[in-house]
Amino acid sequence: MSRRIRDWLILWRLPGIGPATFAKAVEAFGDPQAVLQAGEDALCRAGLPAECARAIAQADPALADPDLRWLDAAPHHHVLTWDDPRYPSRLREVPGAPPLLYVNGDPEWLRMPQLAVVGSRSPTPAGEANAREFARELAAAGLTITSGLALGIDAAAHGGALEGGGATIAVTATGPDRVYPARHRALAHAITAQGAVVTEFPLGTGPRRAHFPRRNRMISALAMGTLVVEAGLRSGALITARLAAEQGREVFAIPGSIHNPMARGCHRLIRQGAKLVETAADILEELAPLLDTPTLYPPEAEAPAGGPSSLPTDPEHRELLEAMGHDPVSVDELVQRTGLTVEAVSSMLLILELEGRVGMAGDGRYHRLNAT
After folding, report:
1. So what's the pLDDT on residue 305?
2. Cα separation of 87 and 84, whole Å?
3. pLDDT exceeds cutoff 60 at 306
4. 275 and 157 in one domain?
5. Are residues 180 and 322 in the same domain?
6. Ramachandran bin of 171, using left for φ above 0, alpha for ψ from -120 to 50, beta for the remaining angles
7. Mean pLDDT lowest among 89-93, 214-218, 328-332
8. Are residues 273 and 331 in the same domain?
9. Are 153 and 264 within one domain?
10. CA 114, CA 221: separation in Å to the nearest integer?
11. Of 7, 83, 186, 330, which is the most buried if we count CB atoms within 10 A?
12. Does residue 130 sit in the same domain as residue 51?
């Protein structure tokens, strides 16, 4: 087994060898060991570029040593190759699927029904709360939540799934020995214990711009559908949604305020045919018929995502919430709408924020975090 895995790792680490070239070489010679033993001339006759053929012919067996040391370092470290029965079938069926996966955690989660949850790295408080609550409910209902370990919506989705007692998968754009961003190291450890962190990139690979679209492609391929929570018009989440549609997956989007730039990407997706969703049940209703067995369980009670469902008991606090509406609003606007002083409005906003009813965006305006 060690020798077989070594051959896969050596071939995958060679310069110029991507999924397409790897697949072409294995198709021509049968397996990575035969490819490595074929010789430069035979590789060229098989149609491989001369530079790739030369790199393969001169491959150093020590290339695989870092990966093999990582594999042996912990029982929850795994390398899955195309022909491994644990390799997820949804990913395998996509053209250009990576020939091997580095998995930190339980690889069985990769074959479970998954929903990708993606969105902005700089969401509004309401968007972050929505991502967390949708993920919590969907994980509790039986879906594994898949995302990219990024700041913002990704982190909220992973956290919500963990809070819901379900599993979550983080697909990363670095090697399995790196966590990016570094502040998510504790989150990555929690995901490893209650799901899996997976990547196609070898040990030592740092974050590179070109790797993130490949990560997004894997996120959408692993899942039955992709939910976009909040996204600007130039967000990478829209790339994930486009890839999901191209791969024949479902695409869902949560609508938002017309004044929220982070909602414009979702609105574009809805115009393009994405399914508008307001509750977790909307997603479960769409995905349940796609399963071989009914494993999804709708939440017992329908409650709006994003915060407490009951109104505050203090009448002035209720009045302030009603004056806020459901769009971002500044303190000055609230003063004008309510006739209260700046000090009174600021004090009530602080209390409502501590109660989880409102949140402050980066521009200093406030959002309601619940739909009541």
Report:
1. 45
2. 5
3. no
4. yes
5. no
6. beta
7. 328-332
8. no
9. yes
10. 10
11. 7
12. no
Domain containing 195 — which CATH number? 3.40.50.450
Domain that holds residue 329: 315-368
Question: What is the overall mean pLDDT for the chain?
Answer: 90
Enter the tokens of residue 6: 């070594």
pLDDT of residue 272: 96
Q: Which one-letter amino acid corresponds to residue 141?
A: A
Please write the tens of the pLDDT for every residue from 203-237.
999 999 999 999 999 999 999 999 999 999 999 99
The pLDDT tens digits for 147-170 are 999 999 999 999 999 999 999 999
Full 3-state SS string of the chain = CHHHHHHHHHHHHCCCCCHHHHHHHHHHHCCHHHHHHCCHHHHHHCCCCHHHHHHHHCCCHHHHHHHHHHHHHCCCEEEEECCCCCCCHHHHCCCCCCCEEEEEECHHHHHCCEEEEECCCCCCHHHHHHHHHHHHHHHHCCCEEEECCCCCHHHHHHHHHHHCCCCEEEECCCCCCCCCCHHHHHHHHHHHHCEEEEECCCCCCCCCCCHHHHHHHHHHHHCCEEEECCCCCCCHHHHHHHHHHHCCCEEEECCCCCCCHHHHHHHHHHHCCCEECCCHHHHHHHHHHHCCCCCCCCCCCCCCCCCCCCCCCCHHHHHHHHHHCCCCECHHHHHHHHCCCHHHHHHHHHHHHHCCCEEECCCCCEEECCCC
Residues 147 and 278 occupy one common structural domain: yes
The C-alpha R_g of the chain, in whole angstroms, comes to: 24
Q: Is the pLDDT of residue 121 over 80?
A: yes
Q: Specify whether the CB–CB gap between 167 and 112 falls below 8 A.
A: yes
Mean pLDDT calculated for residue range 113-138: 95
Token pair for residue 321?
């919430």
Asked if the model's pLDDT at residue 19 lies above 90, the reply is: yes
Q: Are 120 and 232 in contact (CB under 8 A)?
A: yes
Amino acid in position 212: F
Is the same domain home to 117 and 237?
A: yes
Q: pLDDT by residue (tens digit) across 279-305?
A: 999 999 999 887 755 555 554 444 444
